[in-house]
Amino acid sequence: MIKKLKFESIADLFSDKINSGNPRMSSVSRCDYVIIKDKEILFIEETNLMLKDLLNPRVYTREIVENVKKMWGSITIFMYYISAKGLIDEVKGKDRIYILLLWKFDGKTVRALSNMIKTLIKYRNGGYADVKYVTREDVDIRKGAN
Prior knowledge:
Elements: E1 3-5, H1 7-18, E2 33-36, E3 40-47, H2 57-85, H3 88-91, E4 95-102, H4 107-122, E5 130-135
Parallel strand pairs: 3-4, 4-5
Antiparallel strand pairs: 1-2, 2-3
């Protein structure tokens, strides 16, 4: 069973609830897709690191901070959703994996990306079983393929 959630609309509902309908309040950072599979739940953030200079410490740090916010915002929204829908038993015991879905990247980005994944793993704090990256050439994860 593969189930792709309409995470954008779920996140909008969550933001409306916590902001009490105030449009001037900022929304919660979140990933782009959530796919529930038989043994795992994939939280997928689609990004293009080719446009970013990850060798610049400010850009690199900003990218780490943004992804940590998306990791924890996504899991918060997901927990709200499964609690509201009564789906806790359906997702219990499944590994949660945060995935960066990347466009192609060049040689200078590889080391920075590797370090970024190591840093993001430090911030998973039991909320995620793993943090990975996948390139579009490897697989079209948006369709739930592995």
